[in-house]
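Re: that backbone. Tokens:
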């Protein structure tokens, strides 16, 4: 069922225009981008970053699909998409019972934003997938070019669960890029080595196109030396992969999901909302640079 454009979403768009009056629209990629958002550590802003970056791109004229692959269904909640038991969801699409087109629903965040929700049924998918043929590639099959052409989307963001199980492997096999949110707090890099090792394994055996394209620093508190130390360490390790934009620690960002909204809808003028707009712009500009480089190399 389609949910209409809302006045609060229009308010968020106006706030974005105020922030960037001369460059409102974001570049659309010449080739569709499929991005897995992953970090095995919970509480790093993974789902929050997924939905807000997706909403920011959608509000600036880009067509976006969010695939909620986390059984908790938090991305579905934040995007205002129904995900009660029995709702057509990513679970049925992974099993091959329905097409992803049948499960995709319009988000309340933007008319350009679609979401394939996660229901409680997805909690048992890890066990069910084990015995299936091509168990690591079920999501890639569901996200076929034909399906994505029918949905007419420029970006696909896959919100992974906070673990390195079979659902996350499916996301890494389906994606070409990985976006890793890292919080500016103690133990920021905890478990990251294992995630990077898994990405290398998937690239070696299942998906040669996979690479870490983006690292986003979240929960930044400029009042603490620790935040600056973590930021410096991450930038030193990952260089240009790290976005210039950092997402501040914000009560508004934390409150928004409780109202089934992105922060861009909940408080469009807040620092958190505008930071996600800036992060989305960097991601879009990265895609444009990559497209130009590829075009130049093919001449």
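Recovered sequence:
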């Amino acid at each position: 069922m389609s949910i209409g454009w809302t006045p609060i979403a229009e308010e968020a768009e106006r706030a974005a225009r105020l922030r960037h009056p001369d460059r409102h629209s974001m570049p659309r990629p010449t080739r569709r981008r499929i991005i897995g958002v992953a970090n095995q550590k919970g509480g790093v802003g993974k789902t929050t970053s997924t939905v807000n970056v997706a909403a920011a791109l959608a509000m600036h004229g880009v067509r976006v699909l969010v695939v909620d692959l986390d059984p908790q269904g938090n991305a579905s909640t934040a995007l205002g998409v129904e995900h009660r038991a029995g709702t057509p969801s990513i679970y049925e699409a992974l099993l091959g019972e329905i097409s992803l087109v049948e499960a995709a629903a319009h988000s309340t965040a933007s008319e350009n934003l679609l979401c394939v929700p996660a229901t409680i049924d997805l909690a048992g998918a890890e066990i069910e997938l084990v015995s299936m043929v091509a168990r690591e590639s079920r999501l890639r099959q569901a996200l076929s070019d034909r399906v994505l052409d029918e949905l007419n989307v420029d970006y696909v963001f896959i919100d992974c669960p906070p673990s390195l199980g079979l659902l996350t492997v499916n996301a890494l096999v389906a994606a070409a890029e990985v976006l890793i949110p890292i919080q500016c707090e103690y133990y920021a890099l905890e478990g990251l080595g294992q995630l990077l090792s898994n990405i290398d394994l998937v690239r070696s055996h299942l998906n040669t196109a996979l690479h870490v394209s983006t690292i986003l620093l979240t929960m930044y508190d400029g009042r603490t030396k620790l935040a600056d130390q973590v930021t410096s360490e991450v930038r030193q390790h990952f260089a240009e992969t790290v976005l210039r934009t950092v997402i501040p620690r914000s009560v508004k960002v934390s409150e928004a999901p409780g109202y089934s909204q992105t922060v861009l809808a909940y408080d469009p003028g807040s620092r958190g909302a505008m930071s996600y707009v800036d992060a989305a712009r960097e991601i879009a500009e990265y895609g444009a640079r990559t497209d130009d480089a590829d075009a130049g190399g093919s001449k």
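The longest strand covers residues 211-220. Residues 133 and 179 are 28 Å apart (CA to CA).
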